[in-house]
Structures are given as C-alpha cells and as structure tokens.
Design goal:
4 copies of one chain form a homotetramer. By secondary structure, chain A is of the alpha/beta class. The first copy, chain A, is built from 13 helices and 15 strands. Chain A has a 7-stranded mixed beta sheet. A 6-stranded parallel beta sheet of chain A has the order 3-2-1-4-5-6, with helices on both faces. In chain A, β11 and β12 form a beta hairpin. In chain A, α4 packs parallel to α5 and α9 crosses α13. Chain A is globular, with a radius of gyration of 20 Å. The first copy, chain A, starts with a strand and ends with a strand. Chains in contact: A-B, A-C, A-D, B-C, B-D, C-D. β13 of chain B pairs antiparallel with β12 of chain C.
C-alpha cells in the first residue's frame, strides 16, 4: 500500500483534528510535515503527531518537505495564496473552508486549479461527507423524495461559545460569512440549482455585543433558485441545548430531515424533566466522522487519480453567495446573485 | 335519536370521569340517576352533572330509577353482586375493572351474564379502546406484524402517587392484582392465546413501606402461552417522569410499540437539559379518550343490539391470571394457570 | 347548570364538527337551531343532531330562533355581514376564520363588535386552544424560553387533498390567504409583536394546475416584527406523509417545537422500512380537540361574562397580513405592513 | 510515541475489524504479525493490512513474532488455551468474547491471568466502550438515576442473517450462549450485583430450522440478583428492521434507555409510510466505534501500565450465567446461579 505524504499548514483547533486524522486514521496517508507560526503548535506536532519535519514558513514547507499534498487549515485570508503556491509546486491541495475571504481571491485559486488539472483540489465542505448527509444525498439521487424543491437549513452555535463569537465578531465579516457557508453549500448541493436572489435579515435579543460591532446574533436568509426552488438558511449563536445543525430537504415525493434533535448519543434519560435527549456540544464532536471521511476521500482521490465531487467553484460560489447575503442583510433589500 | 338512560354507581375519581362522559360526551346517552354512599358525591351529581334522581342504596336505584343501564364504578369487592343484581333487574351493565376480587365472585358474574344473553355486559378494559392500542390491534389483525409471539408490557405509576399506593398496599392484594390486570388483558388480546404458566418476582428499593405490608414497589412476571408465545409484564410505582404505560407487540414480520415516550403532548422543549419531552402525569389524562370511547361503545352496543368485543370471561381470566401471578411472586415458584 | 342556546350557520365539513361539539360535547351548551342553504345539511341537522328548528335564511334564524349565540361556519365572504347582523340582534358570535375576505369587511365586523361590548365575540383560531399550542404558550409566558425572537411555522396539506386545492385555487385568493392565516396568527401570538414587513415567494414543482390559475403549490414568507423578531411561514399542499403542521418558537433561553413528527397516535411500527411513525391525515383529526376546546371557551365566556383572549382585531390583523404577504409574493418586492 | 506491537490471531469478519483498528486507527499501536489457518486471510493481512510476518501456527507466532501483545479473534473454543499460551509467553492479551465455551476452560484462563499480574488481560465486551453505553454508565455512577434496580436488555439480530444463524444453530450451544453473553455482562455491569437465580424460556414461530436442532428463534430470561435487582434479557434473530440492541437501566430516581430506535443515522424520512427512521443493519456498523475504543483502551492500558475495568472474571461470570440460563431454558425450571 502506497502512503500519500501530507504536510499540514496550521495546527489550531481544526488543524489538530485534520492532522490527527492524517497521522492516525487514514491508512493510506502519512503526516510527514507540519507548518505553523505558533511554536507551541510545532511542539505539538513533534510530541503528539510524531512529525519531525516542521516549518514556520509555508513556502519553505512546500518547497523542501517530502510531501505529495498539503492540508491548509490556516486563517481564511491565507487560503488562496497558499493553494496557489502549493499547486504551482506540484502538490495536491486540501483546504479548509471558506475558499477565500472575497471573490477576487477565490478567482486566483480557481485559476491555479485550472492550471494544474492533474492535481487533486479539495475544499473542506465536510458536511457532504457526514454519514447522515451523504445518506440523504444518496437517497435523493435514488429518487426517494422526487425532485427537491426546498432546503431549510439551521445552524446554531451553542450559547457556551458566545463570548468567543462576540470577540471575533468585529473581524468575522458578519454572521452570514462566518456561519452560513456550509448551509449555502448544502443548499446548492441538495437542490442542484443556483440561487439567483437573496433576502436576508438579522436580529439580536440577548448579546448587544454583536450589534455594537455591526453584527447580529441571529440571521435568516431566503433564496430563490434558478429552477424555482427555495432555500431558507437560519444561523445563530445562542442555542442553550448544544450545537444545533439541522437540514431538511423537501421534494415532490417526500422529505428528509437531518438531526432535528442534535442528539449527543443514543441514550435517552427519563427523569423529573421528562424524556430527555442530551445534545451534542460542538462541531468537532458532531462532525468528527465527517472530518475523517472527507480527508480519506481526498487521499483516495490522489491514490486513485480521481477528482472529488466538490470543486473549487463550489468554494467560490459559497463565498459569493455569503457576500450577497450579507449585502441584503446590511441594505435590507433583495439582492440578485 | 333514542338516548340510552344510565344510572351510575360510585362517583369517586374514576366514577366522575365516566359520569361526565355519559352526561356530556355520549350523544346517545343520558345520565339519569346516580348512587353513592358518600353524600358529597350525590351533591356533585346534582350540581355538576344535573342528575336529580340520586340514591344511597344501589338496589333501590336499579329498582326505581328510570334507567336502561348501570355503570358500576364502585369498590372492586362490590362489582360482582352489583352486576348480578342489575342484570337480574333487566339492566345493561358496564362495570369498571377488575371484574371481581376473586375468581369465585367472577363466576357469579359470569352466570348472571349467561342468564341474560339479551343484555349488554361490558367490562372497562379501556386500554383496548385507546386510539393507539385500537390502531395497533387493527394493524395486527390486518397482518402488519405477521403472527404476534411476544408482548412486553410496562405500567409504572408516577412517583407523585406513591404515598397513596403505600396506604392502599395493605388491602390491595399486592402489586400484580392492583396494577397488572390491564397489562394481562392486553397480553391476552394481542397474543390471541392464553397463558398457561407464570413466573413472577418483586423488588423494593425505595419505599420500605411496601415491603412492610408484604407488597413490593416493582413486579415482573413472565408468561408462557398455549401457542408458545411469551409475555413480559413489568409493573411499578416510582416513575419520576410521569405515568409510564408502554406496550410492545412483537410478531414474525415486525413489531408495534405504543408510547415508548409517554408524551404529555406534541411539544418538545430544547433547553439546557437537551431536547425534552414532558410526560403525561396520570392515567385519567393518558386514557381520557379511551374512557370516553369505551363508554360510547357500551352505549352503541345497547342501541344497536350488539355485543362488545370484550366479555365477562376476559374479566375472569385477568383476575385469575393476576392471582396466579401473585402466587408465583409470593412462593418464588413457577405456577401453572 | 344553565345551557347556552346556540344556532349554527353552515353545516359543511367544519360546520358539522362545530355542531356536533355544541350538541354533544359542551355540557353547558345546547344546539337549538341550524341554518343552511343546502337542504341535505338541514336534513343532517334533524337526523344527526336532533335540531328541529332549521332555517334556510340566516336573518330569519337570528330573529326567530330561541338562541343566545350563533356559530358562523359559512363561506368566508359571508362572515362579516353575518357577524354584524347577529351582534345587532343581540346574539353572542362565534365565527370561523378568516374574519373576512378583505380588510374593509373586517372593519365592519370590528365596528359591530365595538357597538356591542356586552356580547362575546370569538374568532376560531382554534390552534391557540390545541393542548400542545396552549401548553407552549403557557410555558413561554412562564419564561421557559426567555424572550421569543423567532417563529418558524410550517403548514402543509396532505397530497391526498391536492385535487380539491387545485379546483379551489382560482377563487381562494392564493396560497397565503388560503393557508397562512393560522400561522400568521400563531406568529403574532407567540412573538407578542406585530410584523412590519414581509417578503414572500412561491413555487410549483408538481401540479401545474396551480400556476395555471396564478396560484402556487408552496409558499414561503419571512416577516420582520416591530421588536426585531423574525417570522418564517412555509405553507404547502403536497405532503406525502399526511397533514404536517409544525411550529417552532425560539427564545433567548430555549425553544419549543410543536409536532416535528405529526404523529397519528402513540404507536411506532418497526418493520422492513425501519422505525415508522404514521402521520395524522387531516386537520379535522389533528385539531379535533382544539375545535372542542375553543367552542367550550366561547360558551364559558358567555356563561361567565368573560371576554376571550382572541379578539376581532386578531382577525383583521391576520387577514391584513395575509394580503400584504400575497402582495409581496405577486410583486416579488418587500412589502411594508 | 512508543507503539505497542500486536499480533492478531484470526482474521474472520470480526478479526478484520480488530486488525484494521490496530493497524490504522490506534495511534500508539502497530499490527506486526498475523496468524490464521485460512490462507486467504493471510493474503488479506499482507495486501490490506501491510503485515508481512504471518503464521499458520498460533504458538509459532507468539514465540517468534516481534509482538508485545496478541489479539485473539479465533473460534470460541480456542480462546482459553491461546490466552494461556500468550500470557505464559509474556504477551499482553486481548480476547474476543466469550472467554471460553465452558466454565472449566474459563478457570484455566483465570489461572493464567493470575499467574501474570504484570500483563494486561482484556476481554472484548465492547458494548461497555460504546459511547452511548459508556455515557449511561458514567451518568449512573454520577447518580443520575439513583440506585439501579432493573435492567431490560434486548438483542435481536436482523432477519437478513437468519440463514447463517440456522446453520450455526446445531453447534452454537443455543440462543443464550450464542447471543446473551453481552446482555448478561451489561446487566451485571449496570446493576453492580450478581444474579443468583434465572428463569428462561424460548420460542420459535417462524423458522422451524431452529427447533429442529434443539435451538429457538427467541429467548427470554429473567434474573434475580443478590441485592434484589431484576434483569430481563430478550434475545432473538428475526428483526425485520435491522440489528436491534436496546438496553434500559431503571433506577430509583430515573432511567436511561439506549437506542430504543436503533437508528442508522441522523436522517428521518417523511414519505408515504409516515416519518421513517431507517435502522442500523448489523453489529459491525452499530459497534464500529466501540470496537475501536475498546482496542484503544487495551493498548493504552499496556502503554500506561494500567488494568482495564473489565476482567477475566467478567468473562467467566458471563459464560457461567449463560450456561445456567440455558439449563433453565432446557429444563423449564428455575435455576440457582
């Protein structure tokens, strides 16, 4: 079995997840290099991941390290140039979402991908690889719900994370850019049609810290697609019960709803409150398997010379739509996409 | 529309429910008389039910009142002679469960029913008329689960009622006679076969008041039926979440489970505990509709000259089985039925 | 017990439900008169409801019949003048929703109600009286979810009724006027704030019969309220699984979701499809108890000299908002309310 | 990071699962040797697991291979001597359940474990490591349900596997030895008390192939424990909906139920059948994570010089109780344990 050698860029919270998957859970992958500007993270790579070939400079890693591929899990604003550099250096590229922080950046990444058609490019819309979402897509493709004509997506972070969100709010680009990109991608994926129009609203009832910096606690966007399908995206930051990601796809013959109860596990408690299902606390737990499976698919694409179902254009599209959504939210007007 | 005239005997907690159904919710019935040895209950009949023809003596009511039928909701030990007297006086009879407090009594009731084949006799196994149980039976009769071969029944009273249960424990005949009669009836009904053997156990972990008088907090009985089918009955008194009645019928092609979550209503709360379904608090609430529907069926049987699906023999059988179950529980031995 | 005498106007599908409740299920009410222009319906009143005092002319009934109150369950376009006439004749009035077919009509009804402050006026937003909705409201008023800031409402008719909907589409005023009035009322009730702006869309993927007459199969409207709260209403007509009415109220401390699975009853089937919960087939079944409870409340208000929580202004508001929603749907623009 | 070197014995269905976990999913483990009497399995080890050091003789492997530990996933009848040989050769031992096929064998394994107190011995009761079961145990230890006094365990194989079960029935020792060992272990673990008495029954309604060889399709056993607690174990082989493993632990202050719906994933379908949750198809899927986590714990115990929570005596106990259960089933009598 040939092992694909991967260098990781960025070892923050999500970087550590991807790195551990590559190092320990993908049989045909090997984590051979790591890059970070944070020295503790490089220490972590050595001690916890067994990676001795570490870098503080990204360009150095892609030039010198013994790697077939890079996994980019750096700050969003760095993604696009790092993608470009890696592809130009002959490496396959996995990048975490979002593709870039604006559409112009995304276009540079697109061009690089197009320059290197022999390289695998993978953008980390991991929800597509979550067993429940993948199953839904498979059922839909098999005709289980007829023609999908509506997606209702909900993504609400746990209240427990709200302080971090408020701190981050000033620079995040606002709730839709920060939170809606996954839901937008799922909407496009499930509906198989591009949104042509958006109307968005926001509101804040609990934490004025958001409005103080021009952000909102909660956002709702409705989309009309080219084929007439409708999308509703609700994002928020104050779920008391946990990390609530729920998606419903409605078709002419049925519908599929994913995790209306974002259950922590299969146990139900019967106690003085009633019948209680505890809920999952965070995205790393909810999507642990999805993160592993998407990385496995990235590696398998390289090993088998295949291209993944998700493309660089999906990355650009989601970013573009998130910006148009933000424009509608800020202006109060309906915005064409 | 001819209205069947009914006299009620007993206006305790359940008597009031039956009386209100007859008086207000059964279009073709009329509550025209009431009998009770408790004067407040007769006052209640006048004020709340509009019944002016009231009695303290049961025999007087069945002789003098303008009634076609009686509804017997008195103390269990009085049921059988009251059934006999009413049938002999030419009245149709509805009696609450259990049929009697021993099999000898039940046999007297059976004889009276047999003496009056033109009269409707109805025993209040109301669970059979609960929409969910009736639906299960209908599905099963239609073949939805193949041949039923196992029933798992659970009936646990809410902890909130435990003080009353302890007080009543000395005279109740024990947990199986007190609580298992409905489950035994359902088991026989769903399996379509008679139990031929029982093994029962009891235990008490929380309220020594039960063991002090020879009763138990929790009981489990397993039955083997003539056709090889198996029944498991679990009764208890200390559910913290509410009134938990759950029944599963397992067949060769599928199974049906009724109220694994004894939900209070259709609302789910998402709060700091997780996703919470509050539970139903008591049998009068859980089976409100069943009590109305069984009484409607009783009245319709009279009006249409039909006989109900449930018979006096069902009453004897349940009582007999409950006694045999108690014998096994007390002796620790397997008991033939 | 004094019985309130009621005359019913209209004995169609819903009229029969209200009539049977008044006649048989409301202890302190009596159905003493009935009016219909359909002779079969009057025959039904005599045979099935025991009402001998029947009319083909509404005005005649309110003048001549021995009634304290009328229950108006006629065609929507007749509601307002019938309300006016009844109030002016000194009768208490229950009317089915919608209040009227345009706001001008509603204003006439409002004036009549204001002219007769001693009379009870009740508009049939029965969902408010459904045990699950009433429980949700009670929990919310008790602070269980903090301050409500979003309502997501879904109301989808079963596919089995779609032929009737298509026939009716030409004259119904469109999907929002036809279907969204209850959801709009619930949104206002739960949020405690008036919508000031609406954006609506519609789409049709299955039955071109709707678009042929300018209607749509599915509609989505988003509302912004005075206090910043957001409402999302999704109405449709093609649910394969049954009658799907679902409402979620989200607050700063939690949320309540009513019937995410519109279960038929408490039975779950385990069969070759998996674990299956059959769904409720129609609104008369889903809201049977709500119809009874709202009528009981109407009668109790009369008996006790109280005014109901729902007012004539709620009727006008819902109609007005439904029209503004329709305007947005037709124009594609955001409409101020 | 030191990697524990493991040799695997047996590469059948479950052996492959364990081997893949050791090889690819346990960071601090390494699969360095494999032994099988089936040549295809050794081929598989080379090609799919990258193991070049392969054996057809178990004793040869433990003597010659570069291993710290063995994982025994062979036929049940071989477990005990292989445990003994490995421990005596200075290897840590993981063995799949059951410990042995009779109590005498188990005692030999116990003696070997006692001879080598410095070695880690681990028996694969993987359900204890399943996230939902582990969570339940943790909640119970934290007092969430008070004192546990009843366990209701259900384990039903999917109908799709029934042909294999029938073939295996002649030599399996019967349904309780074949299927109930995990449930017996869980019962003991959750109740913290040993069963002192068992009464068991079996029945067959669908596949006479079972009775033809003295086995049954379905078995029910009830246990009474030393402290008065009660256990109910229901095992079967004909679930149409999938692999149904469900466990309820009832305590004085609440209860926990694990997977009443053995859901395949988080998706719910709404279609013409109702709201449908597809179910998990087999134990390797249901317990995939448990298999990985138990192996991780085995390796961590070695690495950290710890002993696991599950012991060799748990293995003997489960085997002993399964035999006593079988005795009761065969004789129809209550059997003391």
């Amino acid at each position: 079995m040939v092992k694909i050698k991967v260098g990781i860029a960025g070892l923050g919270r999500l970087g550590k997840i991807h790195a551990a998957n590559i190092a320990f859970k993908i049989p045909n992958a090997q984590l051979t290099a790591a890059c970070s500007i944070v020295s503790e993270e490089l220490e972590y790579a050595k001690t916890n991941l067994g990676v001795t070939d570490v870098y503080t400079d990204y360009r150095e890693m892609i030039e010198q390290a013994d790697i077939d591929a890079v996994a980019i899990v750096t700050t969003s604003s760095e993604h696009c140039w790092q993608i470009e550099a890696a592809l130009d250096a002959g490496k396959h590229v996995f990048t975490d979402k979002p593709l870039g922080v604006d559409v112009a950046q995304c276009k540079l990444a697109e061009a690089a991908v197009e320059r290197h058609p022999d390289k695998v490019f993978f953008i980390g819309f991991m929800r597509r690889y979550d067993p429940s979402y993948a199953y839904a897509k498979q059922k839909i493709d098999a005709g289980a719900i007829g023609t999908p004509y509506m997606v209702k997506a909900t993504g609400v972070d746990p209240e427990s994370l709200v302080e971090g969100s408020i701190k981050f709010a000033e620079t995040s680009g606002g709730i839709f850019i920060d939170m809606a990109v996954h839901d937008i991608d799922l909407m496009r994926w499930f509906l198989g049609s591009e949104p042509v129009q958006v109307h968005a609203m926001g509101t804040t009832f609990k934490h004025p810290g958001f409005t103080a910096v021009g952000d909102d606690e909660t956002g709702v966007a409705t989309y009309q697609c080219e084929n007439g399908a409708i999308g509703i995206v609700h994002v928020g930051r104050t779920a008391p019960h946990g990390y609530h990601v729920e998606t419903e796809i409605i078709g002419t013959e049925g519908s599929i709803r994913i995790s209306p109860v974002p259950e922590k596990n299969l146990a139900v408690l019967y106690n003085e409150h009633g019948a209680v299902q505890e809920c999952v606390e965070s995205f790393p737990v909810r999507f642990a398997e999805a993160y592993r499976l998407e990385m496995q698919e990235f590696i398998d694409c390289i090993a088998e010379g295949r291209k993944p179902g998700v493309t660089v254009y999906d990355g650009t599209k989601s970013t573009d739509i998130a910006f148009k959504t933000t424009e509608s939210w800020k202006s109060g007007a309906i915005v064409k996409i």
